[in-house]
Structures are given as C-alpha cells and as structure tokens.
UniProtKB/TrEMBL annotation:
<feature type="domain" description="MASE11">
    <location>
        <begin position="4"/>
        <end position="162"/>
    </location>
</feature>
<dbReference type="InterPro" id="IPR003661">
    <property type="entry name" value="HisK_dim/P_dom"/>
</dbReference>
<feature type="transmembrane region" description="Helical">
    <location>
        <begin position="84"/>
        <end position="99"/>
    </location>
</feature>
<dbReference type="Pfam" id="PF20969">
    <property type="entry name" value="MASE11"/>
</dbReference>
<keyword id="KW-0472">Membrane</keyword>
<feature type="transmembrane region" description="Helical">
    <location>
        <begin position="106"/>
        <end position="122"/>
    </location>
</feature>
<dbReference type="GO" id="GO:0000155">
    <property type="term" value="F:phosphorelay sensor kinase activity"/>
</dbReference>
<feature type="transmembrane region" description="Helical">
    <location>
        <begin position="137"/>
        <end position="159"/>
    </location>
</feature>
<feature type="transmembrane region" description="Helical">
    <location>
        <begin position="61"/>
        <end position="78"/>
    </location>
</feature>
<keyword id="KW-0812">Transmembrane</keyword>
<feature type="transmembrane region" description="Helical">
    <location>
        <begin position="31"/>
        <end position="49"/>
    </location>
</feature>
<feature type="transmembrane region" description="Helical">
    <location>
        <begin position="7"/>
        <end position="25"/>
    </location>
</feature>
<keyword id="KW-1133">Transmembrane helix</keyword>
<protein>
    <recommendedName>
        <fullName>histidine kinase</fullName>
        <ecNumber>2.7.13.3</ecNumber>
    </recommendedName>
</protein>
<dbReference type="InterPro" id="IPR048437">
    <property type="entry name" value="MASE11"/>
</dbReference>
<dbReference type="InterPro" id="IPR036097">
    <property type="entry name" value="HisK_dim/P_sf"/>
</dbReference>
Length: 251
C-alpha cells in the first residue's frame, strides 16, 4: 500500500503541470464542465494519495475510476484524438489492480466506445466532433479495443513472468547462502575439529618411536590411537554428510 500511495504522490505534481494547459484550452473553448472535471480529477488524485485510512483496494479503485472518468470526458469533448487516454487507462487498470476477469478494463473501453458511437450518430457530441468519417470512427475504436484486449492479455503474463523470475532468483540466492554456510562449517571443521585428533595421533606416533616405552605405556598409547582414529572417522563422516547436503541442494 505504501508503494502505491507513494507513486500517486509522485504523480500529483505531474498532474498539476498537465492540468494548466488543459484548463487554458477548456476556458478558450468555453468547456466549463471540462474545467470542473479536470480540477476534480486532480483533486481526487490528491485525495487518493494523501488520505489516510483508505484500504489499498479502495484506493486503487478510486484512482482507476478517476482516470476512466477523465478519459471519457476527454473523448467526448476532444474526440478521437483522445482515445489514447482510454488505452492508457486500460494499461494502468491492468497494471495496478487484479480484476476477477482480467479483460475487465478492455470491456470498459468497449462500453465507452459503443456509448460514444451512439452519441455521435445521435449528434449529441460537441459540434467540432461531428466531422469524422464513419470508416475513421470505426477504425480508431476497433484499434483501441484490439489494443486494450492485447494489453489485458500480455501485461498479466509479463508480470507473472517477472514474478516467477524474481521468486527463482530468491530461491537461487537462498540456496547459495545455505551452501556458503555449509562450506564455512566444513572449513571450520577441517581447520579446527580435525586438528585435535590429528595432533594427538602425531604426538602418540612420536612417543611410540621411543624404545623405552613399557608394555602398559604402549597399550595406553595404542588405545589413544584407536580413540583418535574413531574421532577422525566420525569427523570425516560429518564432512561427507555436509558435502552431500550441498550436492542435493544443487539439484
């Protein structure tokens, strides 16, 4: 939630910059409703970004709804040149929200396109938008709908692929960290644990080289050799076991 909220806060200054030329154009064309919609859209973006206590799902829906409302009004007042806003709205909706039907944003664009075409043929659109050819109208909206469904199809696959790659990287990193820990442990065993019985064996060997050892001393030294050999055998088995753990983690 913090990441999405922070993203909106970063977008707010850009929205205000984009608002200025839009307001100038709307005032020049005397489209005062568009002025109201522009101001309310930026205000809703600010509200969505800074208002505390809003759940992440509601925050995303508010933002998506604002973008779609603004895009719809732009298409109504500006005409076909603003269909790009609907495509951007579709991409944003797919990017930030998981719908039960992944093609829901594309269907929104279908409904808005059909509604605009109906208004166009009933001559209920602004006068400067009546001079489009029928072929041009259908070409633009058919391309919009095609691209919208394409976005809804590809964007989730792209992010699923990125998510899978991210999970695999984490898994691989974790595996390497485990292997490094085991290798450190093996290194420590070889440099410290092995040294104790090995030093003892070396000392006993030197003592056995002396010819003045009594039978009891020889028996004692031989017993210690046996103990040291058993210790070394156990240590070697531990090292082999840990090595097998590294090999099994590589599979």
């Amino acid at each position: 939630m913090i990441c999405f909220q922070t993203l909106i806060i970063y977008i707010i200054p850009l929205s205000i910059i984009a608002l200025i030329p839009s307001l100038i154009w709307a005032f020049e064309e005397k489209l005062y409703l568009m002025v109201v919609v522009d101001i309310l859209s930026v205000g809703m973006a600010i509200f969505t970004g800074i208002k505390k206590g809003i759940k992440i799902k509601q925050r995303k829906l508010l933002f998506i709804g604002t973008v779609y409302i603004l895009s719809s009004f732009l298409i109504y007042y500006v005409g076909l040149n603003s269909t790009l806003y609907l495509l951007a709205a579709c991409f944003l909706a797919t990017f930030i929200y998981t719908f039960k039907n992944q093609y829901a944003p594309a269907f929104f664009n279908v409904y808005i396109s059909v509604f605009y075409i109906v208004l166009y043929y009933l001559e209920l659109t602004p006068p400067h938008n009546i001079n489009f050819k029928t072929s041009e109208l259908f070409a633009v909206f058919s391309n919009l709908i095609f691209l919208s469904f394409l976005v809804c199809s590809l964007v989730p696959k792209l992010f699923n692929g990125l998510d899978e790659s991210f999970k695999n990287n984490i898994k691989h990193t974790t595996k390497i960290e485990i292997q490094n820990e085991v290798l450190k442990e093996i290194t420590w065993i070889q440099s410290h644990v092995v040294r104790t019985p090995l030093s003892r064996l070396m000392a006993i060997t030197n003592l056995l080289k002396e010819n003045d050892n009594t039978e009891e001393e020889k028996i004692f030294l031989m017993d210690n050799i046996s103990v040291s050999c058993n210790e070394l055998d156990q240590i070697i088995q531990d090292i082999v076991s840990k090595s097998e753990k590294i090999r099994s983690s590589e599979k």
